[in-house]
Amino acid sequence: VSQGKLDADELVLRSGDVSLEGRVSLPLADSGRTGGFTLHLLAPAVDAIMPGLAGGNLGGQPVDLRGEGNWTPDGLQLGELLLRIPGRGDVRGSLSFAGNPSPSISARLSSASLDVRPVNNNASSTPPSNVVSDSVIPDRDITLPELPDLDVDLKVEIDSLQSPVTAGASLVLEARLADDQLIVERLETRGKRGQIRASLTVAANAAAALEARLELQGQELYIAAPDESPAALSARPQYDLEATLQANGADLRELAETLTGRIRIQAEEGTITRRGGLLVTLVVDDFLTRTLETINPLIKGRDEVQLNCFVVLAEIEEGKVRGDPLVALQTTEVNLITRGEIDLGSESLKLDIITKPRRGLGISLGDVINPFTRVGGTLASPRLVADPKSALLETGAGILTGGAWVVAKKFRDRFFAGNPCAKALEGSDEANQQ
What is the pTM of this model? Predict the structure, then answer.
């Protein structure tokens, strides 16, 4: 005790391998209402402090946390914050807590380089299930973090982020959690694999369900594993995308059933991986591979396909994904158009895939490539029927071809008079202008 202050120059708390050290300075005249402190927390693993992170990408990683701050009647301020994860990177910033006019937390964090990729023994914390489900979209509940009477304001800036989906891109995140709303005002990544800008609002309504709205834009994106070499990456197509989506519900299925908005994707030429690639993993039971093989049996045995262009034009209303066309695609051998509907509520598929061999690739190619493929069934169990034109003419049945092959042929000729992707984009732009 000296000059009206109580100084605790050394405070140590240990529990097993976890230690918390620091010091405290307390002005006696303020009766403990103000003061300053420093802290240093050491733990052999992050889950020793927060068990909920044990199965995460940083589970098992050592932690070194330092900071200094002060408290006043208005709240607590922690500055000079340093979180060091050996071999993964440093996070610096500040953290403050205010009690008036309402409890709130504000965090400002930054990092020059951060690696949050899972270690090998943590890459898959849950063993794959062998149970075959008749549904792809789970009925998993979605809830907002429960922080009653507490507002959270967060800003994160990372110059180089290594993660399961990024390979050294910069990241900026600005988000707020208040009044039963999560508002991501800005999510932006930028790097050698393209850039993404997004905003998201999720709010809880009176029925305890969530209302969500997403705006997303991506430019010059590469879809590939983060560890793919620059040489291999240069052969991949670049993607541009735009999406405006909204939905409401208490679980993922309800959100899918109410999903409304539009998605537009455009890709340049490049090589896509059919087996084991990211595009394949997005489709259950290697559906993409089986579809391509049904359309063009010549690609069986190939692991890669040369893509000349690729377009997705999806209009979504109450869980029904439609497009006329929905997909336009051109490979070295074939032009392709897909039209129809995907019902996310029932997960049913009603798609027509219309194809035409490209000129100058051999007279016999037209006898190999199936001009018409119908896709039915569900997302979990799609059914493909190659060239069912005779059945259509005999029964008069049809999904979206007017019940006759001649309608599909006219549709094919309309888009295959030139580049099918360019034709699809032209039609979409004209429809939006109207």
Answer: 0.81
